[in-house]
Design goal:
The protein is α+β, with helices and mostly antiparallel strands. About 30% of the residues lie in helices and about 20% in strands. The chain folds into five domains: about 100 residues, Phosphorylase Kinase, domain 1; about 180 residues, Transferase(Phosphotransferase), domain 1 (Orthogonal Bundle); about 130 residues, no CATH class; about 210 residues, paralog of FGE (formylglycine-generating enzyme), CATH 3.90.1580.10; about 230 residues, 3-Layer(aba) Sandwich (Rossmann fold), CATH 3.40.50.
Length: about 1000
């Protein structure tokens, strides 16, 4: 019988070899080339012919004697596939063919740790980094009840991009490797060899052997894993700068599992602590050293030891000096350049490297606030592992930040995704609101504030399936035309992680949802007439006149589209399904809160907009602030609130312009468009205000249907802005000559109204010959909320103007900084008070130009107006009434949706702007959307066609500084002339 089994195995192996050739197709996978062979399989590079991606295809050699275990192979591999962690190789799929099971895995490029160890031991910090990443992956697996059982250097992969991946996690038992080839004895814990139960501490033992091997270039026990080995390693690992590391490895290698760390999470915390201490020591100039101590029968003569030590010290000092030179002469200038280009993550990474070399350098200390901010992350309960990655790079590895609470941690200004995990609790995915516009527009406020984020973790099983928690609070709407509405109070709630899918909606159909009158709770009103229930429900038929969505046929969704969002459903059908599953449609406030329109510039490029069609849910990387997918694009989503007789449907769809993510839309609740879908919410508490459910009128302005004021009426408006040029009584309040590239003066002069005085800051360049071309700034709305300009610095968006050899004047306009008054918002309003403030802002600009005309070092004949955000919205009014402005620059501006009195409405002034005007915008601006705000302003500007330019970058509200600077300086050179 044994011979027959061996022959059968050999025949099956030969069949595998014959079938698994490049070009062979198994299922939907086409094999490209063999990558390697292991103890229980052959790995190929393969192409997924359906998804068009390259993967690793691992064929499992399941011989005759293990054929009965194929079901277990599939079952345990599917369990392992549920693990999702940056340090665990991604298992995409599990399948079987006539010859046996196979796995579809993430394709990696690099080498195994075993291959690297053939070259010798690793430096201490590098060994620690690898061990930390392996422990991080194992900790995630242990938290989900998965044990590796076969952790060896051959199962640790070092990727070319620096990531570390654990392979074959949880699959050793599934594939019977221990029984097939005896495993890897040197890394097997004593309980494995004796057949005792295995648990997380089995992996801890293997990780201890691996860490010892990386540091000492030797195994702590005989390679055969003999049973007579001592309970402690034959050699003792010594790390002179961190003795606790050697002690930790000894604990990990204890023969008795009870005496080892309980799991990889405990090991991870210790390793991270050692890593932090060692990096601080390295930055302070203390060299690290690892030794394997053993009894020696010889001693090195003292003189030789001293000579060797001296040579080593000299070499180390030379290396240290070169590193310091690099940090000061190359690293710091590169950081400044990256900050200027708004490349905050790259600047942060480089700054960390420089800090290790020159931690107390004052120039680096000054740069930190420009590229990062302090963040405190707290969780309830505490003790959660926190990971982060840059939002715009979803393919990169997660970086472990530490265990909560994390107090005063530095993070780059770039938008980040967080992953928060704790054993026994549902993982949290989050995108904290760390807007990178703040250091551009308000560097003082950005430097002084520490961001605080609090996350609540829910016990496993307490979160409804496929839902995520959203924290409530005082919530306003992030939609133009609705953003001036007062906020409402929301309680905490769960929201569907994805849109409701076809397969989920099919359960409603199969359960007779269209026949169950108790599920249809809302009156049917169509064209002003109330419809009986039977008549109304009869309208909701699929393409074959069966009950169901308009996109279905014969009561079923299209084949293969179970994971696609259900579409072609009316608001009434969505509400009935919500009743069926015990949830509700989200209010606008709940939907807006979860969608995160403030991160439009990052979300939209990673979402499904275009002409390709619907996509399966959660296949795009555009995740929302609380871990939702596809709130931008894919299917539009019905919401609770009414707009007249219509209901809101939000988020835009795959076949709509991307700016629809930011615009409200309202349709008949009977509408069943092919791109209309929905997701649902479930309240956690009862703290939500009734105001959140009330109808919300949307007074959107359609600028294609409005007519601006004619010339005669405009001349009347313009006269309202006139003022008497009385004495300025100008004073220099203070000067500051410390900035490297400019001189800063604080001046004041009389305002054109009310006996007030205007404070202005003058920035003049160090280079060039006066009189300087002069740029007058009107800032963003952050100036309204600040009450002191004493520490005012140049916004990064305009700093290049001064560096180019031009002067800049920054007036403190009425309602801003210390001149604050009853204006609490940048939004226009149809009030006399708002009109009077617009006139006052124009007069402040005029008086500032009056002052420029008194200075011999400032050239009032070559003067530009530079508006940013709020200032760019006001600028058309200012430029139309102030003829001394020669050229205009509008950054992040457009027409607003709110109305004001006609004599203060930018819409009526834009046609009378005659100066050359540059508009620089983001395609994904949620404040001034491209199609409904930016483009109407461009069309209406009265500048000659050749003298107005609209530059749109794939960004949000304010484009990246490097792209913006090029356009601005080119525009000033063109119309004011190059600087000297």
């Amino acid at each position: 019988m044994e011979e027959l089994l061996v022959e059968a195995d050999a025949a099956r192996g030969a069949a595998w070899s014959a079938a698994l050739e490049p070009g062979a197709v198994i299922g939907r996978f086409e094999l490209v080339r063999e990558l390697g062979r292991g103890g229980f399989g052959i790995v190929y590079e393969a192409r997924d012919r359906e998804l068009g991606r390259t993967v690793a295809f691992k064929a499992i050699r399941a011989g005759s004697r293990t054929q009965g275990s194929c079901d277990r192979v599939i079952r345990e591999a599917e369990a392992a596939a549920r693990l999702s962690h940056p340090n665990i190789v991604t298992l995409y799929d599990v399948g079987r063919s006539e010859l046996g099971p196979y796995l579809i895995l993430e394709l990696l490029h690099g080498q195994t740790l075993a291959q690297r160890l053939e070259l010798g031991p690793l430096p201490l910090l590098e060994a620690l980094r690898i061990a930390i990443e392996v422990a991080s992956g194992l900790a995630h697996a242990h938290a989900h009840g998965v044990v590796h059982r076969d952790l060896t250097p051959g199962n640790v992969f070092l990727c070319e991009d620096g990531r570390v991946k654990v392979l074959d996690l949880g699959l050793a038992h599934a594939f019977g490797r221990r029984k097939l080839d005896g495993g890897t004895p040197a890394y097997m814990a004593p309980e494995q060899q004796s057949g005792a139960p295995e648990d997380e501490r089995t992996d801890v033992f293997a990780l201890g052997v691996m860490l010892y091997r990386m540091l000492a270039d030797a195994l702590p026990f005989p390679a055969d894993g003999g049973q007579d080995r001592p309970s402690h390693p034959a050699r003792r690992l010594e790390v002179q700068e961190e003795p606790g590391l050697g002690e930790l490895v000894s604990r990990m290698l204890e023969r008795d599992p009870v005496r080892r760390p309980r799991d990889a999470g405990e090991v991870l915390a210790s390793l991270q602590s050692f890593d932090r201490e060692l990096r601080r020591s390295t930055a302070a100039g203390v060299p690290t050293h690892v030794a394997v101590a053993a009894r020696r029968r010889w001693r090195v003569p003292l003189a030789i030891a001293v000579a060797i030590g001296a040579c080593g010290l000299i070499a180390w000092l030379a290396h240290r000096e070169s590193r310091v030179r690099w940090a000061l002469e190359e690293g710091l200038p590169q950081i400044r350049e990256l900050v200027e280009r708004s490349k905050y993550s790259a600047a942060f990474s480089l700054a960390e490297q420089v800090e290790r070399v020159v931690p107390d350098d004052p120039r680096l200390t000054k740069l930190w606030p420009a590229l990062s901010r302090l963040v405190t992350i707290e969780t309830t309960p505490e003790g959660a592992e926190v990971y982060a990655k840059e939002y715009a790079a979803p393919e990169t590895a997660w970086r472990h930040l530490g265990r909560s609470p994390l107090v005063g941690m530095r993070l780059p200004w770039a938008l980040l995704r967080l992953r928060i995990e704790k054993k026994g609790f549902a993982a949290v995915d989050a995108v904290p609101r760390l807007s990178h516009y703040e250091p551009l527009l308000d560097p003082v406020r950005a430097r002084m504030q520490t961001a605080r984020f609090q996350f609540t973790l829910d016990p496993l099983g307490s979160v409804p399936p496929n839902m995520v928690r959203v924290t409530g609070g005082s919530v306003a709407l992030d939609f133009p035309g609705l953003d001036d509405r007062p906020p409402v109070e929301l309680g905490d709630y769960f929201i569907d992680r994805t849109e409701v899918t076809n397969s989920q909606f099919k359960r409603f159909v199969d359960a007779g949802g269209y026949r169950r009158r108790e599920l249809w709770q809302h009156p049917f009103v169509k064209d002003g007439r109330s419809l009986p229930w039977e008549e109304a429900v009869a309208l909701f038929r699929d393409r074959t006149a069966r009950p169901g969505p308009a996109t279905w046929e014969s009561g079923d969704y299209p084949a293969g589209q179970g994971d696609f969002p259900v579409t072609g459903v009316s608001w009434y059908e969505a509400a009935a399904y919500a009743e069926f599953v015990g949830k509700t449609l989200p209010t606008l406030y709940q939907w807006s809160r979860a969608a995160g329109a403030w991160a439009t510039a990052q979300i939209v490029p990673l979402s499904n907009f275009g002409e390709a069609g619907l996509a399966p849910v959660a296949t795009r990387s555009g995740v929302g602030p609380f871990g939702t997918f596809d709130m931008a694009g894919n299917a539009k989503e019905w919401c609770w609130n009414a707009h007249g007789t219509d209901r809101y449907v939000l988020g835009g769809a795959w076949n709509e312009p991307s700016y629809m993510f930011n615009l409200p839309d309202a349709q008949s609740p009977f509408a069943r468009a092919e791109n209309f879908g929905f997701r649902l919410v479930k309240a956690i508490d009862s703290n939500t205000s009734r105001a959140a459910f009330e109808p919300i009128p949307w007074l959107v302005r359609d600028y294609t249907r409005e007519r601006p004021a004619g010339p005669e009426l405009f001349s009347v408006f313009k006269r309202l802005f006139a003022y008497d040029r009385t004495a300025l009584d100008a004073k220099v309040e203070a000067t500051d000559d410390t900035p490297e590239r400019w001189r800063k003066e604080k001046v004041s002069f009389t305002a054109a109204y009310g006996g007030e005085r205007v404070v202005a800051y003058i920035f003049t360049p160090r280079r060039g010959t006066p009189p300087f071309q002069t740029v007058v700034l009107f800032p963003g709305a952050s100036a309204i909320y600040q009450r002191s300009s004493d520490d005012l610095t140049l916004m990064r968006v305009v700093a290049p103007v001064v560096r180019s050899g031009r002067a800049l004047i920054y007036p403190v306009y009425k309602s801003t900084y210390e001149r604050g008054d009853d204006v609490k918002s940048p939004f226009p309003s149809p009030t006399a008070s708002y009109r009077d403030h617009v006139i006052a802002w124009s007069k402040d600009l005029g008086r500032s130009i009056d002052y420029v005309e008194t200075r011999s070092d400032l050239d009032a004949r070559r003067l530009a107006l530079y508006g940013v955000s709020w200032g760019a919205r006001i600028a058309p009014v200012l430029a139309a009434v102030e003829d001394r402005v020669r050229v205009g620059i509008l950054v992040g501006g457009g027409f607003g949706q709110q109305r004001s009195m006609p004599e203060a409405d930018a819409f009526n002034f834009a046609p009378y702007v005659h100066q050359p005007m540059l508009m620089v915008n983001g395609r994904f601006d949620f404040v001034f959307p491209l199609g409904t705000s930016q483009e109407p302003l461009l069309r209406l500007l009265g500048s000659r066609a050749g003298d107005k330019r609209h530059v749109v970058f794939d960004s949000g509200h304010v484009p990246p500084n490097d792209l913006l600077t090029r356009e601005v300086l080119d525009w000033l050179d063109r119309y004011l002339g190059p600087t000297q």
